[in-house]
Amino acid sequence: MQTKVVSVDPTRIDDACIREAAEQIRAGGLVAFPTETVYGLGADALCPEAAKKIYAAKGRPSDNPLIVHIADYAQLMSVARELPREAKLLADAFWPGPLTMIVWKNELVPRETTGGMDTVAVRMPSHPVALRLIRESGCLIAAPSANVSGRPSPTEASHVAADLDGRIPLILDGGPVGIGIESTIIDLTEEVPMILRPGYITAEMLAAALGEEIRTDPGIIAPDSEQRPKAPGMKYRHYAPKAELILIRGERGRVIREINRLTGEKQQAGLRVGVMASDENAGSYTADCVLCLGAEGDMEAAARQLYGTLREFDRQKADIIYAESPAASGVGAAVMNRLCKAAGYQISDV
Ligand code: AMP
Ligand code: MG
């Protein structure tokens, strides 16, 4: 299959491009498109055959459910069996935006879309291209990240093409995304709302909007515990570069010394070493490729650049990557979550 890449300027969206993409979705086909979080791989969420194509193109395990993207609140009501009072509060506070809500599904939503579950994940993206595509297609659009399963999520159209060229008919290129990590997922089917995946919308922001306590899934905090994460996707190794990735955590001077010591050791063994660093520390490293995530403590910059940087290490053929461990507060909690997963939870305290 030939993959067509079409540029769309998000500030001046070309009608013909959107019509072509919408037609593809209505016909049961796949379209990769930009959202504010990462690029999505979209298909008609209510059509089982279309949803199956997403799993096939990504090589995604069939028990890992898809997020359904909508363009107005009524579409949430159209797929939910019942809506808890929190849904409206959170939609008013954060939609359109990077928040996904899990609610009980009704019979309209096929199990192919929900990975066999009785619940459905729903999000209203804020990216103008995503919203236009949903509206023009007249469909609800199921869209996981547009990467091959297990690889870092795509934050530019070129990342989508690197993974899915020849496997999907159309990529809408709307330039680099704004946020760079996937949406926060909150489960509203529990007694107490529970975060299943941290993201740009933090636990503090959610609790403030709801005026009530929320919890975080213990299965994502302690990956080696008996507890399985409730979002099936969180149990898979994910976001990973080809190289081995190890997080080094501790006081700045000690981290730099330890990374340089390890670098020397690995270089002696003939390996090509990468380091993921803050702008301030980058000059202190002796590795073969040193890539920056932004100023120290700027977690929004780190979120925006994380996946592109992991892919760049692959391009530069790093065999092993050492990463400084970012501050885990605010958006940093989400960055840390993705990094830990990408590293297969290899963290070394110094
Ligand atoms: P991605 O497609 O990369 O954005 O990942 C979607 C995430 O949402 C995965 O971790 C899924 O397991 C999770 N998810 C989607 N639907 C549900 C659901 N009904 N219940 C729990 N988690 C879900
Ligand atoms: Mg994904």
Describe this structure in words.
The protein has an eleven-stranded mixed β-sheet, sandwiched between helices. The protein is globular and about 60 Å long. The longest helix has 17 residues. The chain starts with a strand and ends with a strand. It is of the alpha/beta class and 350 residues long. It folds into two domains: 217 residues, DHBP synthase; 106 residues, Rossmann fold, CATH 3.40.50.11030. It contains eleven helices and 16 strands. The mean pLDDT is 95. The protein binds adenosine monophosphate and magnesium ion. Adenosine monophosphate binds next to strand 6 and strand 10.
Helix content: 25-40%
State the fourth-level CATH superfamily of the largest domain.
DHBP synthase
Ligand inventory reads: adenosine monophosphate, magnesium ion
How can the largest sheet be summarized? 11 strands, mixed
CATH architecture type of the largest domain: Alpha-Beta Complex
State the end-to-end CA separation.
50 Å
**Which series of helices and strands comes N to C?**
EHEEHEHHEEHEHEEEHEHEHEEHEHE
State the domain count: 2
- CATH-defined fold name of the largest domain: DHBP synthase
Shape: globular
Strand order across the biggest sheet? 1-8-2-3-7-4-6-5-9-10-11
Please give the number of β-strands.
Answer: 16
Round the mean pLDDT to the nearest integer and report it: 95
Contiguous uncertain segments of 5+ residues: none
